[in-house]
Amino acid sequence: MADYTLRVRRQKPEADDRGPAGPYWEDFEVDLDPTLSVLDGLLQAKDRQDGSLAVRCSCRAAICGSCGVKVNGQSTLACKTQLGEASEAANRLNGGSEPIVVEPMENMPVIKDLVTDMESTHWKKMRRVTPWLLDDGNPPERERVVPHENMVDITQPISCIQCGACVSACLSMEADPDFIGPAALAKAYRFVGDPRDVETDERLYDLAQDPHGIYDCTHCFSCITACPKGVDPMNQIMRLRRAAGEAEIVDKNNGHNHEVAFTKIIEKKGTLDESLLLQESLAPGIVGKMKPAGVKGLLESLPTAIRGIKSGKMRSISKLIPGIHPKLPGDAQDKVEKIYERAEKSRWQLNLYITGRDEDLTEAEEAPEQEEAKA
Amino acid sequence: MKLAYWPGCVSRGFTTELHGSMALVAEGLGIELVTLDRANCCGAGVIAEHNQELADTLNARTFALAQETGLAMMNICSTCQGAQSECQERLDANAEYRKHINEALSGEGLEYVAGKDGFTNKNFLWLLVEDIGLDTLRDKVTRPLEGLRVGPFYGCYVLRPKDRLGYEDFPERDIYLEKVIDALGGTVVDYDGSRKCCGFPIITMNRETSLTQAGTHIGDAIDRGADCLVTPCPLCHLNLDLQQPEAAKAVNRDLGLAVLHLPQLVGLAMGFEPAELGMPRHIASTDAVVERLAATTA
Predict the structure, then answer these.
(1) CB B145 within 8 A of CB B265
(2) Which chain B residues are closer than 8 Å to A308 by Cβ?
(3) For chain A, which terminus, N or C, has the lower number of CB atoms within 10 Å?
(4) Which of A171, A221, A319 sits opposite B161 (nearest CB)?
(5) What is the DSSP letter of B160?
(6) Cα–Cα distance between A371 and A374 in angstroms, integer?
């Protein structure tokens, strides 16, 4: 058993005799084994010190997804975080006896203490992506047979337990509350990757065109770190982008143009020609430069370019004139082009979530022998 | 110490002051850098988004070029670190996949061998703390950054995801900037945005979200009394410095906070002059930093 301090950011929904409505901090001392969870700590505090402490929970085993909170700033499940490791994390930077800080999830309104309103954010965003199967309307006599590899492909997003930890952790949503967000977009891939769904292109088009859709994700890995079930929501968003690219959906957010321009520049030059990337992302080709959106994009980036030239950052011919950036030396550029030729045909997508790693496989193969040896 | 050096694209593009200051500081620290001049862009996650195998092959090529030198590899960009580590994770995990990728490199006489002679690819921040060491760094300080209040800004790709980025062996990689600032004699400013996203990856796709992110973090650091930020990522630098006047408009407040590249901060403490380190090239003026140092040295 050990003593821990839980510093909880509580929230009073309405004013009472103890003070006005709003957030306040309160410390709770709990005495529990370090292998027990932060949720166990909160429940002990509620049981012994203040029955009004509000926390949502049910299974206590990382299955139901009810107890999403922030522990030391990290969005996670309270039941999946051990007190011992949380205390260690709290003390790592400053040493000493720092408390374990527990806060309600971000990017959603707080109802009371650690209970947040999932309806107005998480569930609303979830409904935005039509989270059900849109089939061809002709039910077969028996079940629809789906190839094994297709279902394996969507195993990862299927593992989502709707806890909202990724929504809470999302750094794009912090800046843009309208961003559809990691949980809902991972769910969208679950249907985009399902061969029974007949609206794949429509789904992709919708999510690519929405300014708060797949191209509003900054690729920051925050949701991947938060997810307690290994869904890797950001990876599902990248797969949506890849699928939209393969379907040649040209979106008004320049997402597809940016990807195409970047990839092409490296094929032709080996390293990045930033001026060309900017120009071709915002206004690709001659046609793009004549469109109002392309002209607007280029004009918006003009002040930045002028400042860059003034400061000396961009004061060289290859940075001023897009396209004259040097290639890799010798035959290196040809070798890079050869790599493109092969990989663009092959397009192997290795997903370690599904395949595992060689060493894991070896361990799994060795396990039965060990069992035999014991017997 | 001799290292195979991948400077990345941006340090030779829009942030040449990073490339230049790294060269000076490396020499000062006694590091010999062998530039991988045939190597290609890491893809910054964008090529992987387009075609994962393509990104993995391109980075396997860079690793193979580094392995050819027999040296450990160094990069100076959080984004390169993240994109390259992601590809390396897949290459190392699966022998069949690695063999397939290596077939594409054979025409150039190259091969990426997983774990060859303990091969590592580390950015300058990790190398500074783990291989050069903070004690050595302290010995090199001739102008302690006394009184300079520095906000660390890491960049996502050296922080997340931890299991891919070696945190099991080096659990303190997410507090290295604080340790370096302290070793150089500066004061660490704790602010909300230090481990958040600068927004750069979507600057051409959702300008407002992108600039709001940059502007918010700069504003937070100013409110906590920072004289400057320091970052090991040149792409973060683009949004935090090059775009700072636009970020100020996005968050509707005055900003004006210097953003230093990591080698510049180290270089200042080693006695190099701001002009040598390319600081006049920044968009957000670095004058306040220079004045603060002059005041404490005087």
Answers:
(1) yes
(2) 14, 242, 283
(3) C
(4) A221
(5) S
(6) 5
Question: Average pLDDT of each block of 10 consecutive residues along chain B (298 residues)?
Answer: 96 93 97 98 96 98 98 97 98 97 97 94 98 98 97 98 96 96 98 97 96 98 98 97 97 98 98 97 96 82
Torsion of CA A86, A91, A96, A102, to 10 degrees: -50
Query: Chain A contacts of B246, Cβ < 8 Å?
Result: 303-304
CB B21 within 8 A of CB B278: yes
Q: Where are the alpha helices (DSSP H) in chain A?
A: 38-48, 83-91, 124-128, 148-153, 155-158, 165-169, 171-175, 182-192, 200-209, 222-226, 233-246, 255-269, 274-282, 285-290, 292-311, 317-320, 332-346, 352-355, 358-374
- Band of the pLDDT at A375, cuts 50, 70, 90? very low
The answer to whether A344 contacts B48, with C-beta atoms less than 8 Å apart, is: no
Residue of B nearest to A211 (CA): B206
Using a CB–CB cutoff of 8 Å, tell me whether B193 touches chain A: no
Contacts of B108 in chain A (CB under 8 A): 335
The answer to whether B12 faces chain A, any CB pair under 8 Å, is yes
**Residue A80: which residues within 8 A CB-CB, separation 6 or more?**
A37, A62, A228
Q: Give backbone dihedrals phi and psi of A374, rounded to 5 degrees, phi first.
A: -65, -45
A338 chain-B contacts, CB cut-off 8 A: 104, 107
Contact at CB, B93 and A242, closer than 8 angstroms: no
Closest Cα to residue A198, out of A239, A128, A238, A138? A138
Report the SS3 class of residue B277.
Answer: coil
pLDDT given at position A368: 53
Residues of A in contact with B245 (CB under 8 A): 303-304, 307
**Which residue is associated with the tokens 């490296």?**
A266
The alpha carbon of residue A267 and the mean position of all alpha carbons in its chain are separated, in whole angstroms, by: 28
What is the rounded distance in angstroms from the CA atom of residue A275 to the CA atom of residue B14? 9
d(CA A255, CA A242): 11
**A137 vs B196, higher pLDDT:** B196
| Cβ proximity of A134 and A191 under 8 Å | yes
CA atoms of A189 and A240, how far apart (whole Å): 6
